Amino acid sequence: MMINSLRLGITSYYLKRFGDAFPHLVNDYEITEAMVVPSMLVTLVEQASEDIDAKADLQGLKLVLCAGAPLAESLRMRFLSIFYDTPKLIQAYGTSECGWLSTFGYEDPDVDDAKSVGRLTDAIQIRVSDEHVTTSPDGKKAAELWVKGPQVMSGYRNDPDLTASTLTDDGWLKTGDVGYIDDTGKVFLVDRAKDIIKVDGHTVAPFEIESVLSESPEVKDVAALASQKSEDEHPIVFIEDSFSKFDKAQGRKMRDQIRGGDSEE
């Protein structure tokens, strides 16, 4: 972002901390574009839904670019229900090791595909490897994505072992991200390879669990990760809820929601 701003002559502002003041800073400095991660988007949605002045300030933005992690469909719909088309919400994908990889053009007819992080930028090659193979929530085969291009790093400074495990001999960068590519060239992310949970011989993406639970209006934010008490792993979930008091019945309801059924209790 910084290099692109310098190249295009764009005035950019960098915050030490993202917080409640952000909507007012958008208004005060006449900011038109913002780059956020999904957790920051949760905050923007909450601010706009609870404070009419904050919503008005945020509507000064023309574009919100979301990257850093897969974007849950429920979060995207919450954003659109508040802001409609202003600002426009676009996804992107990149890594520190090779920069910008994919995004949607502003007028791309598929820009509202919440499950995709866009199409590849120029000069980038991508392949779905045979490592960390799993199945996406929509039943597609997914695996670790490898990329190659002129912007790929030459290596990690003073760390030859990490460089050797990340770059192949023929120049492919192992991104550490699990995903797949459809027939139209759109890139889809499932999760980070190191975050994939192995349960009873099956692979489970934490993002899949988080996406299901985030559909509940009672869930403000959620994070799933692995707990390994034996040779097998088990998913555990942390939830920030909107209940005044959380009880076991609500916990059972969410458990059944993950399993694809409805709780009868």
Automatic annotation (TrEMBL):
Coiled coil: none annotated. The keyword DNA damage does not apply. Keywords: Ligase. Residues 2-156 form the AMP-dependent synthetase/ligase domain. InterPro entries: AMP-bd_C_sf, AMP-dep_synth/lig_dom, ANL_N_sf. It comes from the Eukaryota. It holds the Pfam family AMP-binding. GO terms for molecular function: CoA-ligase activity. The keyword Ligase applies. Belongs to the ATP-dependent AMP-binding enzyme family. This is Acyl-CoA ligase M9. It comes from Pseudocercospora fuligena.
